[in-house]
Design a protein that fits this description.
This protein is α/β, with parallel strands linked by helices. Helices cover about 40% and strands about 15% of the residues. Strand 5 (about 90), helix 4 and strand 6 form a beta-alpha-beta unit. The structure holds adenosine-5'-diphosphate (ADP) and 1,3-bisphosphoglyceric acid (X15).
Length: about 400
Amino acid sequence: MKTIDDLSKDGLAGKRVFVRADLNVPLEGATITDDGRIRAVAPTIAKLADAGAKVIVASHLGRPAGAPDERYSLAPVATRLGELLGKDVAFATDTVGDSAKATVAALGDGEVTLLENLRFNAGETSKDEAERAAFADQLAALADLYVGDGFGAVHRKHASVYDLPAKLPHAAGDLIATEVGVLRKLTDDVRRPYAVVLGGAKVSDKLGVIDHLLEKADRILIGGGMVFTFLKAQGHEIGTSLVQEDQLPAVREYLTRAEERGVEFVLPVDVLVAPAFPDLAAKAATHPETVAADAMPAGKMGLDIGPETRKLYASKLADAATVFWNGPMGVFEHPDYADGTRAVAQALLDSSAFSVVGGGDSAAAVRILGFDENAFGHISTGGGASLEYLEGKTLPGLAALED
Ligand SMILES: Nc1ncnc2c1ncn2[C@@H]1O[C@H](COP(=O)(O)OP(=O)(O)O)[C@@H](O)[C@H]1O
Ligand SMILES: O=C(OP(=O)(O)O)[C@H](O)COP(=O)(O)O
């Protein structure tokens, strides 16, 4: 992959450089609860601006339905990015419309703009190649050069990630270079025992990764919303918990294959349940019940791993030499369901393992719960992206930067 240094051989002064970042940060209303992804890409933006480029930053936020939706506006991110860069960041209220065109046209050398959420446009995520290409053409018209630095989104075959770089001279940004450098170590020569902890809510995206992990990992620990598809596959009651019904046969096969291959597959022995998903804004006490994982009551939702599971998982991580962790163990955004995630983070710090924590929410959880991010081996800005990288898959957003 070309680097920014390669791209800047003829100078960057006055050039319009499009930076595809992943600024998909957690928000409560318009308040950013963790700015890790903004801080991670800010040095790339500063480097380009310092070289005199006119920097056009673009990202998605959340999963809006291809049309403007104020809840997913990047406006709060523009303000925070400006604070981190120590300069104004002009915010365009659309992505390729009049506001974007006028904002880009008004940019001076060394100035920075942030476009509104790419996913407010159906073309960004479309499966229709022509629709994606048409949107990429509109984005390309705004810029002279392209820098891909949104590591968290490189597994998405989206217009700004995959189609746009083919239309402009392009390079990988410094964040992508760092991320790939660290993750390569986990694919090339991993120190064993190698434990992988999987949780979170993007269950359909991430269950498939287990297929590959069964060939690589020595131990796989399951938490978060992942748990209940496994419990159901084993024939247990899961109440109203998150479940991926269409994956039940696949999950049964994983459990069988883990046994055959001698991979230790660890599921929770107890879980915290409540009648409903908690109100994350109010954070009022919800008085969860601890129940055995094989005896969940009907009508209740599993929201965190329980106290016995916390101890069990800590013991399974204590002697690992390498740990990769993606996905919180529970709904950590509410204090009643943060203990599982806290326990896994603490277990990684207590062990001497090289630990990689990947994912927007996992990385945010570690920081929000008060852990020192520098105490971990690597905090990756990508969850799905790092998992697919470890799987050895061709990632569209990395392939597009190679030539
Ligand atoms: N048992 C559960 N039920 C529903 N959601 C859960 C559960 N456990 C964790 N979550 C949610 O998972 C989300 C993070 O999942 P995900 O996006 O897959 O992780 P990451 O961003 O680290 O890749 C968090 O917002 C958390 O509240
Ligand atoms: O948050 C992200 O991924 P992650 O939750 O796997 O870390 C990325 O911004 C990608 O978002 P998407 O999963 O909506 O494509």
